[in-house]
């Protein structure tokens, strides 16, 4: 909701836990809830903006007003929900095909036709090689400066600078190849070359019914 021109594809899982006739009913219910949520959000933002504009000293609330107006201008495109059975490989392939179809839609993603500079592809390929090398730790964490030094050892990347690398890392973060939390002070110098490691770690820390599982242990 805070990202301009966002495109959201809702995915309903655990289809295998539903009767066949329930799936379509739940799909309609979820889409209706999302629509109602967006309408309520728009109404609330308009209400807050009007309150600030109608205050006795609106000049004191300029920063808040600007943030709210920025949020109000963020548009959301909600695609039709895809229902999948995560235990069925065919359903996973169906979801993959649906995602690819949408991201290739130039009306949804005008930048899909943008041609990247060759150096972006070269750095991407080099990072994949580093991530898959035997010397790479399982956690896939690497210091940005050390990554730059590793990449600079490649003949065609000898002149790669930190600023350009950061631009490329932002792109690779957006497409999900790496994870780089540059906006978090304690993590801005660390790149996760193995995003799946984070997923595994989060699954260990954040579990469904964790409290009940812990309480069941004598």
TrEMBL record:
Name the InterPro entries on file: P-loop_NTPase
Q: Output the superkingdom of the source species.
A: Eukaryota
Q: What is this protein called?
A: MFHA1 protein
Tell me the organism.
Himantopus himantopus (Black-winged stilt)
The gene designation is Mfhas1
């Amino acid at each position: 909701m805070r990202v301009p021109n966002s495109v959201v594809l809702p995915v309903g899982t655990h289809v295998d836990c539903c009767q066949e006739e329930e799936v379509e009913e739940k799909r309609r219910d979820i889409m209706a809830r999302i629509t109602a949520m967006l309408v309520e959000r728009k109404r609330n933002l308009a209400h807050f903006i009007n309150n600030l504009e109608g205050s006795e000293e609106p000049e004191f609330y300029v920063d808040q007003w600007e943030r709210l107006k920025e949020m109000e201008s963020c548009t959301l495109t909600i695609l039709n929900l895809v229902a999948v059975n995560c235990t069925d490989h065919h359903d996973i392939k169906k979801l993959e095909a649906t995602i690819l179809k949408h991201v290739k839609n130039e009306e949804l993603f005008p930048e899909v036709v943008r041609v990247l500079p060759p150096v972006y592809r070269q750095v991407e390929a080099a990072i994949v090689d580093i991530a898959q090398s035997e010397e790479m730790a399982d956690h896939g964490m690497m210091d940005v400066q050390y990554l730059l030094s590793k990449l600079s050892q490649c003949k065609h990347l000898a002149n790669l600078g930190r600023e350009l690398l950061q631009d490329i890392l932002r792109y690779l973060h957006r497409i999900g190849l790496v994870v780089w939390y540059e906006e978090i002070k304690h993590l801005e110098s660390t790149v996760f070359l193995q995003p799946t490691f984070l997923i595994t770690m989060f699954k260990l820390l954040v579990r469904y019914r964790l409290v009940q599982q812990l309480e069941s242990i004598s």
